[in-house]
Amino acid sequence: MKHRVTSGTLSRESSALFLTGAIAQMLGLHPPWSPLIGENLGDSHFRSLHPPAWEKRNVLAASLFTTTMRDRAKNRKPTQRGRYLSTEAIQAVQALKRASGVGSNDRCSLERVLAAKVRRLIKGDMVAVLRELQSQGEGLLALEVFEEVRKEHWYKPQLSLYNDMIRVLASCSLTEKVEHVLSYLKMEHLDADTEGFNLLLRTLLDFGYIQPAMECFRLMKLWESEPDLSTYVILINGLKAKEEIDLSNLVRQEAEQHFGESLEFLEQNEETVLTDPDLNAYKRTT
């Protein structure tokens, strides 16, 4: 005796086939008659074991609704010059700030964070942490990471790294720390880098570090980073702006000896001299 199949009597296989048929019918892949509705339960079991070709198409249609999850870790952009922070770098920054929070003067807490969160970082992440702390004006914390960077086997001294560190410390009025970093610089062995020294000279003069600027000028020549037009313009104008007229005149005299009597470049706007390659290619006149 035939009877209609209800949801209470459908087997697990029949329920799956019924759902597949319904989806296929919505897609227009279903024949005009339903294989399960109004037919014998035994017949439906036989079809589940030996499905006709149209049911195979229904299974294919149902597979169109399969959802695949993508690994969200692939969405994160790679670290580029410290701009994008990895999860580990973010955790390191947060942990450092918590360790140095208000009322937290425990050096042991900071040391634990450095050991657990900073020293284990790869090169790109450690540099990213340093730049992030510098951008946030966290001078003391940035100095802690800077000192960790100097201990790494991959560390290569660069004037740009020193310039950024000195700038953030000077902006926080940490004069003693600026002098501390400059003492590191004097012990380094750097390649000739006139442009790097020019940036450092400008930073020091901007914050009123006159004597350190003159020491860096001497260090520049000692390391065979030959001063160019930009160097003298920065020093002469920077010293004059800080009312160090005598020092400015001494540097001007040196420039006259180095470049000859023609000093028209001193009348140029400073930004023009710094960016004009023709002016920086200027040689001693005869």
Describe the model.
It is a single chain. This protein has 286 residues and is an all-alpha fold. Among the domains are: 12-63, no CATH class; 81-155, Tetratricopeptide repeat domain (Serine Threonine Protein Phosphatase 5, Tetratricopeptide repeat, Alpha Horseshoe). Helix content is 62%, strand content 0%. The chain contains 15 helices and no strands. It has helices at 12-27, 41-49, 53-63, 87-99, 107-118, 123-135, 139-151, 159-171, 175-187, 194-206, 210-222, 229-241, 245-259, 270-275, 277-280. Helix 4 crosses helix 6 and helix 10 (194-206) runs parallel beside helix 12. The longest helix is centred in the N-terminal third of the chain and has 16 residues, at 12-27. It starts with 11 loop residues before the first helix and ends in a 6-residue tail after the last helix. The model is unreliable at 5-10, 32-42, 71-82 and 277-286 (pLDDT under 50). Pfam families: PPR_2. GO terms for molecular function: RNA binding. This is Pentatricopeptide repeat-containing protein. InterPro entries: PPR_rpt (IPR002885), THA8-like (IPR044190), TPR-like_helical_dom_sf (IPR011990). Keywords: Repeat.
